[in-house]
Design a protein that fits this description.
It contains 3 helices and 7 strands, in the order H-E-E-E-E-H-E-H-E-E. By secondary structure, it is of the alpha+beta class. The chain has a single domain, classed as 60s Ribosomal Protein L30, Chain: A (2-Layer Sandwich). Helix 2 crosses helix 3. The longest helix has 22 residues. It is globular and about 45 Å long. 39% of the residues are buried.
C-alpha cells in the first residue's frame, strides 16, 4: 500500500467514486507535471449533497463539511489522473473555492478551510497551497460549495 493510501486508510477517510462530467468538459487535464481538476461539487458516489446557501439555511460549520466533500471529490479525480497512485503528488499547488451565500456573508475562507484542511491532513506539508475563496449568488444544481484544484506530480 502506498504512503498516501496508507495515511488515508489510517485516518478512516473514504474517497468517493470519481464523478463523470455533467456538461461539455473533462474532469481533469494533465499539462506537463500538473493536473488541473475541474470544479467539484458535493456528489457522494452519484448522490448530490450539500444543497443550500451559506448565511441563509447553512452554517459555516455545515459549509466546511460540504467543502470537505468537494475536496474528497478532488482527490478522487486526482487519484484517477495519477493512475491510482497518490504518492505521485509532489505539491498541492492551488485550490479555488466558490461559496453560494447571501450578500452579507463574509466567512468564505472558513468554509473553504474544509477542503484546505483535508489536503494538509492527507498530504502534510506538500498539502499546503495557494487559494482563493469567493462568495457567489448561486452554484450549479443549487449546491453550497464548489472547489477546483491544481496539483503537481513528480517527474
Amino acid at each position: 500500500m502506498s504512503k498516501i493510501a496508507s495515511r488515508i486508510d489510517k485516518l478512516g477517510i473514504e474517497l468517493p467514486t470519481a464523478a463523470s462530467p455533467a456538461a461539455n468538459y473533462v474532469p481533469y487535464v494533465l499539462s506537463g507535471n500538473q493536473v488541473v481538476i475541474a470544479g467539484q461539487i458535493p456528489f457522494w458516489n452519484g448522490e448530490l449533497t450539500g444543497l443550500g446557501k451559506l448565511g441563509a439555511n447553512l452554517s459555516v460549520d455545515e459549509g466546511a463539511k460540504i467543502a470537505r466533500v468537494c475536496g474528497l471529490n478532488l482527490l478522487a479525480q486526482l487519484k484517477v489522473a495519477c493512475g491510482g497512485d497518490l504518492d505521485r503528488v509532489s505539491q498541492v499547488v492551488k485550490l479555488g473555492g466558490f461559496v453560494n451565500c447571501i450578500d452579507s456573508f463574509t466567512e468564505q475562507p472558513e468554509v473553504i478551510n474544509g477542503a484546505s484542511d483535508l489536503m494538509v491532513e492527507i498530504f502534510d506539508d506538500i498539502g499546503r497551497h495557494a487559494r482563493f475563496a469567493v462568495g457567489v449568488g448561486s452554484l450549479p444544481r443549487g449546491v453550497a460549495v464548489e472547489v477546483d484544484g491544481v496539483f503537481e506530480l513528480h517527474n
